[in-house]
Design goal:
homodimer, about 350 residues, alpha/beta, Rossmann fold, eight-stranded mixed sheet, 13 helices, about 10% strand
Chain lengths: ~350, ~350
């Protein structure tokens, strides 16, 4: 049907639901690590603002549109464009989120993740996981195809640290065009050293790896996966790049099995500094690549996505895949993404 | 099929969802007004504890089981029994809730309702309503039959005040066996006097009536109704007594129309101190009465329900109706309600 989604997704959902887990981690405030905010302190507001943008195309609780220090806008504009065109409902979920959005969201509680270099990062990981299971169970009775994205600044670094604790030695992606790989490696290494965890030590205990060097998004998504993978449950598509690939690795280690695949953008899949495809292939999970075609955008800030800035987030790749299942064309995605950025309402500050 | 649900509900839901709106109002702390807590201060914890009980059969954020000063347990035990037997998913929603539960819930924000005698009660009613619309719209795409209950201590008094502002002169029900009608009338009258509202003055402006003398549950449920009543939307059953009947009156005045009915327990319908049936009939809405049969309980605290204590709450009547649609018998409801009360886990305090 389309040549911009690869391979074709062979299922037509009737009651899709697009979930996005919002979390904060102090790792996101380490200067130079995350581009999800013009300053490190603003990164804590980005998840809530992403929710407001997707739900209402209006930013309420952040003084500006979430964007990179270089001026690339949040990928939430792409997620909103795709979901709006396809009329797919979204459901934002908070886990360890300090700055709450002014739109409806499911609260899973939890504390913001701490700096992995200084202390255990997510001591309440098990409680978050259990609440995720409860929510996943409910959703499994309502939807036949659940997409799960994330918005958390600093999340690729915690993903890197957990992957190392599980024995993987792979690079993760970045919202910067030039991946600050060395800084991420150093932060992850410091966290693992503090916790006394060697490479592969927690191969069979990802929940402990999360508690020590992960972030609050992880136990929430894993809990959702556990709760959603019932015998008559829905298809599940993780919507994200290397962070969600890391979740797949954790789920694998925890024996969470079922109809779980992963979808991301072409921009992540083609990122030579990261190992998305390698990791997913090693886990034998199906993956889908969506090409949003944003090089054809009329707006330079949106064109930067096609130049390797931002790349993914807020489930953008999965949202584009989902929209394609409802007859939305790549050109419509491009035009609607431009329209979202042109019309988004910002607070008067 | 059954003679304990009257009349028969002529629709078999395939993807039912049982929503419960949790709110706090300072009116619930007026001594002698609400029996939803052993002391007035504890009433603020009751909604969150009800959510924990229904979701997990465990109380986490309240020092004791929510119960009346006389020892009747929360009707949440009946709601949990019914939903568990029928495997119907619940979704708790907070609106103006100060004491949050330790289980997943949708947060609609808002401030707790203020004492209507002292100041405007719900100044943020419009914002809550708008968030309710957003949530209702989502749910309309997932469920084919949505039940909406409430848990708010003091809610029948604010319902009385809003009904008067809308021009109705009817009594409301009570969680006490002997309805403190005079106290409620006085509080409602004081609130209306403070706000300068005469009987019927706000016949065409229920949102202003809520803002002045209502509570935060009201705009949330009305927003849900607005968002759910789409052309291809689900059946909607308000689950509650005179409070939900008051919501029907407000919805009527706001022109919210659609497949909306109401279900309650026999204990409310037979309460001669309240005018449930009269109000619903005057609005031309279908109503359903469920008889939980709790006089056959083996536990004296549960038997008190059949003696006119508690009567309704947390959507208990609607939950019993919903369970009956899945082959659950009245005897099963009685036995499971007893089992819930015998097995509920309380905090070690």
């Amino acid at each position: 049907m389309t040549n911009w989604i690869y391979p074709e997704f062979d299922f037509q959902p009737r009651r899709p639901l697009f979930m996005v887990v919002m979390s904060n981690t102090a790792v996101g405030k380490i200067p130079g690590l995350s581009a999800a905010g013009t300053t490190p302190d603003l990164t804590f507001y980005t998840p809530g603002a992403d929710a407001e943008l997707v739900e209402t195309n209006r930013i309420m609780t952040m003084p500006e549109l979430p964007e990179t220090p270089g001026g690339s806008p949040t990928p939430a504009i792409l997620t909103r464009a795709a979901l709006t065109l396809a009329k797919i409902p979204s459901l934002f979920v908070s886990s360890g989120l300090e700055k709450k959005p002014a739109v409806p969201f499911v609260d899973l509680g939890g504390l913001p993740g701490r700096d992995i270099r200084e202390s255990p990062a997510v001591p309440d990981a098990s409680a978050i996981f259990e609440r995720g299971v409860i929510l996943g169970n409910k959703v499994s009775l309502l939807s036949d195809c659940v997409f799960i994205g994330e918005t958390i600044a600093g999340g690729t670094t915690t993903a890197l640290a957990v992957l190392k604790a599980l024995g993987y030695d792979l690079n993760v992606s970045s919202s910067f065009a030039t991946n600050p790989t060395e800084l991420k490696e150093n932060v992850a290494a410091e966290g693992l050293l503090r916790a006394g965890i060697g490479k592969g030590d927690l191969r069979t205990d990802p929940m402990r790896a999360i508690a020590e060097v992960g972030d609050p998004m992880m136990p929430a998504v894993l809990g959702l996966l556990r709760g959603l993978t019932t015998p008559a449950g829905p298809r599940i598509v993780l919507a994200g790049g290397t962070q969600m690939a890391a979740i797949l690795a954790m789920a694998h280690s925890m024996g969470i099995d079922g109809d779980i695949s992963i979808a991301t953008t072409r921009y992540v899949a083609e990122d030579r500094s990261a190992h998305f495809i390698e990791l997913v292939k090693s886990l034998n999970r199906p993956y889908y690549i969506a090409d949003p075609g944003l090089e054809r955008s009329k707006l330079p800030p949106v064109q930067t996505f096609a130049q390797g800035y931002v790349k993914e987030g807020v489930g953008a790749g999965g949202a584009v895949l989902a929209a394609s299942l409802y007859g939305v064309s790549q050109q419509q995605i491009v035009e609607e993404t431009d329209r979202v950025l042109m019309t988004v309402k910002l607070p008067h500050v």
